[in-house]
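EI: anyone free to look at a 113-residue chain?
SC: sure, send it
EI:
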Amino acid sequence: TGFSSSSITVLSGRVTEWSEGRFGYSIREANASWGKTKWSTSVLQLDPNTWILEYKQSSVTESSSLLSLTIDLLRHMMFKAAKNVNRELLWVFSASGNMYRESVSEARTMTPT
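SC: here you go
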């Protein structure tokens, strides 16, 4: 089953679990606990008045959340910087295009004297 990255405990009631897309299922009752690996999938059906607790222990070395937060922050900063560069380039090209159009239009409207 591998390293358990989270644990589920049924506090009261009953839970039916279909794990990893299998046709079979497991029924877990009050005070039952089991672990889930990081990439495992399952469907839980809780009977009425069922309470469960899902928890996990993590540290900076075990958890990738700090790393993914850092990557997301860097990605956001790079996107923002690229957006500002694109805006400045658009302004430069727009301004140079306007200057060209103005000089061409002025040349056409001039009448010889």
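EI: The two ends are 93 Å apart (CA to CA).
SC: 👍
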